[in-house]
From TrEMBL:
The chain crosses the membrane at residues 15-36, 42-64, 71-91, 97-117, 129-149, 155-175. The lineage of its organism: Bacteria, Pseudomonadati, Acidobacteriota, Terriglobia, Terriglobales. Pfam families: DUF308. This is Uncharacterized membrane protein HdeD (DUF308 family). InterPro entries: Acid_resist_chaperone_HdeD, DUF308_memb. Keywords: Membrane, Transmembrane, Transmembrane helix. One of its GO terms (cellular component) is plasma membrane.
Length: 187
């Protein structure tokens, strides 16, 4: 029995196969998120709540690693805000989903405006019109969410997360398949 670690050429096929499997799972999870957007929206809200709680705990830990009084107080304050917000989101997930949908609409308004401004700044360059197109579509999406809010809460977060998961899954799958072809050609 050899005590040497496996070589890269021995690990690569396994890693690529795992990547393909994870890609397929990501695509399926995205489809599920789109098919059941209220459930996936709540799941995103709960994940966000737990991330806030963990961030709050982390700030408390870092507070005791800080060597200045102002740093300790700042870390404790930020940690308390994160922890309180996370617990509140966890205890009131429907309210949190409504607020997250509104925050998303506001974010998309600002993103659309920035993209439109950038497209005019980059105007003589090729591809600037795509940035303008992206900005207009982003603004239209923001207005759709805003005008139907809070009713849009039921579908917005879950649907957008599902779409993102599907695109990420397909991107990862195509990259994995290309790596697999390259590996097979090198053998």
């Amino acid at each position: 029995m050899s005590t040497y670690p496996p070589t890269l050429s021995a690990l690569a096929p396994k890693a690529i196969n795992w990547s393909i499997a994870l890609s397929i799972l990501l695509i399926l999870a995205g489809l599920f998120a789109i098919l059941v957007p209220p459930f996936s929206g709540l799941a995103v809200t709960l994940i966000f709540a737990w991330a806030m709680i963990i961030s709050g705990i982390t700030h408390f830990v870092f507070a005791f690693k800080t060597h200045t009084t102002g740093g300790v107080l700042w870390e404790l304050l930020v940690g308390a805000i994160y922890l309180f917000t996370g617990i509140y989101l966890l205890l009131h997930p429907l309210d949190a989903l409504i607020v997250l949908t509104l925050i998303l609409a506001v974010y998309l308004v600002f993103e659309g405006i920035v993209e439109i401004i950038q497209s005019f700044q980059l105007r003589p360059r090729h591809g600037a019109s795509w940035l303008l197109f992206d900005g207009v579509i982003t603004l239209i999406l923001a207005i759709m969410i805003w005008r139907s809010w809070p009713a849009s809460t039921v579908w917005v977060i879950g649907t957008l997360v599902g779409i993102s998961m599907i695109f990420s899954g397909f991107s990862r799958l195509m990259l994995s398949l290309a790596a697999k072809r390259a590996l097979n050609q090198s053998l």
